[in-house]
Predict the structure.
Amino acid sequence: MIDIKHITKSFGSLQVLKGIDLHIDKGEIVSIVGPSGAGKTTLLQIIGTLDKPDTGSITIDGIDVRSLSTRKLSDFRNRHIGFVFQFHQLLPEFTALENIMIPAYIAGKNTAEARQRALELLAFMGLSDRAGHKPAELSGGEKQRVAVARALVNSPAVILADEPSGSLDSRNKAELHQLFFELREKFGQTFVIVTHDEGLAAITDRTIHMKDGEIETPSAPPIATTLNSSEEEEPTL
């Protein structure tokens, strides 16, 4: 689903990413962890085509995204990638239903089609009775679920999440984390999640550790050396 080869990125004299190679399979839920300044968010932005690397290649869902024009890249992003942020980024003047519908409008869907899809997602999220409420009338957990529904409205192949549960209490965190797996089961999306939450990282299919702009390769476990019966030594008396 996502194939990244030798991605580098610098801001002025500061090299943020130093030759990243990464492959993520379709349907995987992958977490990216590491200290602040490791390059996690920059990598996520590049995967999401919100920023361009200095060097390297990126293939998402079989498409070489670096070969796309600005207009085609914008269309690809809207149709193939969904974003969930730490703070929901809902538009305060619109209802939950309307917020979810917006990306569908941008993708060219008509009102009836966008509304039907948004209502289906609200029902899946258990928020049908909140469709007409504006963000100020929703709890923190409800806002983030609406944000997830908005990310899903165009049925993207990939969901990118940057600290998605960072602003939630323990109960809502657990519910959101479980929701990712339910969504994967129902819709088959691939999830790439940047997080400092050890509990979330522990339940993902794979955890990628970053430090100083590089992916840390886990050290191999020690190889146990055992003696077979023909090599056993006589005990020393």
Summary: Helices lie at 40-47, 70-80, 96-106, 111-124, 140-152, 170-187, 198-203. Residues 94 and 134 are 6 Å apart (CA to CA).
